[in-house]
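During the second half of the funding period, the structural biology subgroup turned its attention to how the target accommodates small molecules. The most pressing case was dinuclear copper ion, which had performed well in the primary screen but for which no bound structure existed. We therefore specified the complex as follows and requested a full 3D prediction, including the ligand pose.
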Amino acid sequence: MKNKIGFVAIVTLIGLAVLSTRYYMVDVPVWHFFGGGSGLDPATLHLQGEFVESNLGAAAQGPAGSITVRMIAQQFVFVPQCVVVPAGVPVKFRITSADAVHMLSFLGTNYGLKAVPGEVTEATFTFPKAGEFKIPCHEFCGAGHYAMRGHLNVVPRDQFATLLPGERRTCEPR
Ligand code: CUA
């Protein structure tokens, strides 16, 4: 009987040791278990729900045809890496992270968006003129942080209207 208690105690201790060293990995699931977050699972973002690959990038949404851009930030890229939006139109961004906290900043503007695992960050920005913006990550997120940057192409409104859904999803060179 004494042996059994000892065994259980040792297994429990080992379990706690493993948990404590993996704390940042269990953090998000535990958070969700207790009802926090929006129910987004960073591990399955690409597979189901709002942030599946086919739903990323810019899309017309709602009766007024307003534009919504969906993105995922992950070590060490943005998905998609290149986003195209119309000039002079309010664009709603919805972004989440597949891993660490990232910060998307539109170089040359005051606009920025934090990407947090398990959460959706939403903001609406208007880019008055056509142009190309670099979007570097401004939150230290690991070894590849300094190389983590996406691109935003702002195109004239009528040019945007002629784009096919696939061309709105990403402007990465093919
Ligand atoms: Cu992502 Cu720094």
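Two results from this model are relevant to the next phase. Confidence is low (pLDDT under 50) at residues 23-29. The chain is about 25% helix and 35% strand.
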